[in-house]
Every structure is written in structure tokens, then in C-alpha cells.
């Protein structure tokens, strides 16, 4: 299934891009996406358990995904 | 309408969204860019955000505060380039009594820091640049 | 210089006394005249004070807050005739971090209410007039 | 000894004046001053233990006084 991945701030720098589409086999979780990213250039520097969101809502590593989902990998928040 | 603004924040505009003749207690939190962080002199900084999620979280956080206390809350966060002294975030809570206004304001600013996807890149006077990272012992990642 | 003012309070003037590039967290409490009190519709009110003692207490309270937290605090209280919606009191606390700003601001407004000799006479829409009395069960003495 | 008494707000209304000079015998406390006020017109309506100040500082009923002191009788505070 197809997942839209968003990268921000330091993680976008590490991987040299802010957005990418990836294909993962069902059933997939957020962890599946992160494992896929870690195999890409720069992805090895992602932390073991980054903050993540699925479809703009905070999620966990074991949150299940559906085809067409948007997964965002969020560096440590620094708003406020 | 977005909670994120790429131009200077105006506290009064935010306050006008919640102040009324029934709500006599108004607590405002205003966060401004400091001239030092992590032991370095700060020149300027850039806030970036995951816009749609940030707006959804802002909206959710304010709804939580308004359901928990008899208060009305408004908030705005600046994005883009800010200089030292510029206002980065404004939270205004208005309530008939001051306790609810204080509690609601504090709840919202704490939740913003914990939950809203916003990032801060600091440009230091010494020429270095870092990502602010409250989870790192140094407070910043390069 | 007195903490008591017989003309409209300006939050920004008060804030400018304490905000600086080192103190990025600013918490403001603003108390405005509500349109109802003790079950009656309020038309206007009059604040009076024991001036020299009020100033001494304000000064002491702010010194206490500034010694207890790494914060700078400024405050003003209106006296004379106020209409519904007018600002009666402003407290601004500025600190490098928001916790100290929140705590110092709240300490000061609580202490003002408990210790500063100021009195409030309310004129109601029904033509009655009462002295506000937080110690009375009705909230007002006639 | 001579004491300057200040009355405010509702208490000034009750007694029809905002300021008066009274003579009390030494040794005197704030309570001595209040007892003297209670014997004056309107003074009977003062509460048993009002808030008081001596020379612009919060005081107690048993605070001792000196000649020339200023004693203020403070109705319930309502600032803020």
C-alpha cells in the first residue's frame, strides 16, 4: 500500500527531503514506515523512537496504517 | 483561519477574541525570543510548522481547556524569521474568575509546547546554527 | 511614583517596565469590571484606597515575588470611577522561564487582593449601591 | 497620648468621618483605640475584630501604640 511520508526540520535535513511516497506491504504500522526510511540515505540517523503522526494526529510506533495514509516523522517539538 | 501567523503577533487582537463584560479575569502568556540559549548568544531564529496538524492540535487543546474550565481561550504562534525580542507565541484566557483564567492559560501553553508540531532553528552570533531540542541535554542539536 | 492611577491603565506601559531580551516569558493578569456581581447588574463602580499604605504594600509584595522567583514584576491599580469593561488592575511578571512568570504573577495578584487597602463601591442598575465585601456571604454590604 | 485615627469606605460612612484625633491613656493598644471609637456615634456598628494598620503596616488588636501613631481601621479589602 502507498504511504505519504512527511519529514520536518532536522529530519528533513538528515534525509535531504521533506516529502516522499513509499510502498509498504500490508499489514503495516508506523514502525514499518520508519524501518523503510532507515534503509534510505540519511535514514540511519533517525532516532529509535521518534515522535510520529498518522493523518495529522499523534500516533505510536505500532499504530496500524491504511493505504493512502500520511505519516509524519516529527523531530523534538520546540514551539511556544 | 490559522493559529499560525507569518507576521508580528498583536496581543490585543488575540485578547479581543475572548474578553467580554462577563469575563473580568484575563491572563495572558507571551513568549518572546530571548537573546541567549544553550549558552550561546542568539541572533535570530526561524520557526517552521506542520501547518494542518498544528492547527488541529491548537484547536483541540483550546477545546480541552474550555471544557475543563469556565474560560475562553485564544492563541497564536508566529512562524518564519524572528529577531530577539519578537513575540513567538501569545495565549490569552478570559474567565469570570481569575483562577480559571490562570489555569486555562497555563494548560494551553504547556500543551502547545508538548503537542503542537512546531520547530525552531536558532542562528547564533558566533555563526553556528542549531535545532532547538528540549529533549537533548545541551538543549540544541546541530 | 504610585501604583495607584486615576486614569485608564495601559497594559503596555506596565509591561515595558519588566520585559527585556533576557526575560522571554511574560505573564499578564488583567482584572476588568464585570457587568454582574452578587446577582445584580453593575452600572459602574468606585475604587478608593488608603494611598500611602497601598503603595507600601504594593512595593513589599513585588519585592517578595522578585526575591522568591527569578522574575521582574510591575503592577498598577486604578482608583476613582470605572465603567463596566474598564481595567481595574494589571500585573505583569517577566522571567527567563514561564514557570517563574506564572507563579510570580499569581502570587502578586493574590497578595494584592489580600493585603492592599483598596475598597470598591458598586452602583447597580436597580439604583442600589453597595460596598463589595469578599468576607460577607452575599459578597456585598449595604 | 494622642492617636490619629483614619477611617475608610464603609467604616467612614458608619462614623460620618474619615479622620479624627483621639486621646488614650498609656499603655494603649489598637484595641484601646477601637473601644474608644465604639463609644462614639456610629462606632457600635464596627465589627469585633476589624482589619487594622498601625503607621501604614498591617497590625493586630493587641499591637502596642506610641504617642503620635496613626491607626487605620480597614473594612474588608476589595482591590484587584
How would you describe this protein?
The complex is a heterotetramer, with 2 copies of chain A (80 residues) and 2 copies of chain B (142 residues). In chain A, 20% of the residues lie in helices and 29% in strands. By secondary structure, chain A is an alpha+beta fold. A 5-stranded mixed sheet of chain A has the order 2-1-5-3-4. The longest helix of chain A has 9 residues. Chain A is globular and about 35 Å long. Chain A starts with a strand and ends in a 6-residue tail after the last strand. Chain B contains 3 helices and 10 strands; from the N terminus they run βαβββαβββαβββ. In chain B, strands 3, 4, 6, 8, 9 and 10 form a 6-stranded antiparallel sheet that branches. In chain B, strands 1-5-7-2 form a 4-stranded mixed sheet. In chain B, a hairpin with a 4-residue loop joins strand 8 and strand 9. The model of chain B has no long low-confidence stretch (mean pLDDT 96). The chains are: A alpha+beta (80), B alpha+beta (142). Chains in contact: A-B, B-C, C-D. The interface between B and C is medium-sized, with 27 and 27 residues.
Task: Tell me the layout of helices and strands.
The complex is a heterotetramer, with two copies of chain A (80 residues) and two copies of chain B (142 residues).
Chain A: E1 2-7, H1 9-15, E2 19-23, H2 30-38, E3 51-54, E4 57-59, E5 70-74
Parallel strand pairs in A: 1-5
Antiparallel strand pairs in A: 1-2, 3-4, 3-5
Chain B: E1 4-5, H1 11-16, E2 25-32, E3 36-37, E4 40-49, H2 51-68, E5 72-78, E6 80-83, E7 87-95, H3 98-115, E8 118-124, E9 129-132, E10 140-141
Parallel strand pairs in B: 1-5
Antiparallel strand pairs in B: 2-7, 3-4, 4-6, 4-8, 5-7, 8-9, 9-10
Amino acid at each position: 500500500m502507498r504511504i505519504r511520508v512527511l519529514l520536518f526540520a532536522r529530519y528533513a535535513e538528515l534525509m535531504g527531503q521533506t516529502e516522499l511516497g513509499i510502498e509498504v506491504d500490508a499489514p503495516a504500522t508506523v514502525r514499518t514506515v520508519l524501518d523503510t526510511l532507515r534503509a534510505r540515505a540519511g535514514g540511519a540517523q533517525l532516532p529509535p523512537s521518534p515522535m510520529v503522526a498518522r493523518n495529522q494526529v499523534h500516533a505510536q510506533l505500532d499504530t496500524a496504517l491504511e493505504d493512502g495514509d500520511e505519516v509524519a516523522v516529527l523531530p523534538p517539538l520546540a514551539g511556544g | 483561519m490559522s493559529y499560525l501567523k507569518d507576521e508580528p503577533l498583536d496581543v490585543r487582537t488575540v485578547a479581543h477574541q475572548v474578553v467580554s463584560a462577563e469575563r473580568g479575569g484575563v491572563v495572558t502568556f507571551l513568549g518572546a525570543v530571548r537573546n541567549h540559549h544553550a549558552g550561546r548568544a542568539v541572533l535570530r531564529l526561524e520557526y517552521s510548522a506542520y501547518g494542518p496538524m498544528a492547527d488541529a492540535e491548537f484547536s483541540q487543546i483550546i477545546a480541552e481547556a474550555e471544557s475543563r474550565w469556565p474560560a475562553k481561550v485564544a492563541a497564536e504562534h508566529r512562524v518564519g524569521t524572528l529577531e530577539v525580542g519578537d513575540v513567538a507565541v501569545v495565549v490569552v484566557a478570559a474567565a469570570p474568575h481569575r483562577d480559571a483564567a490562570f489555569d486555562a492559560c497555563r494548560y494551553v501553553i504547556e500543551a502547545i509546547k508538548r503537542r503542537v508540531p512546531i520547530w525552531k532553528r536558532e542562528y547564533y552570533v558566533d555563526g553556528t546554527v542549531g535545532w532547538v531540542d528540549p529533549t537533548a541535554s545541551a538543549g540544541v542539536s546541530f
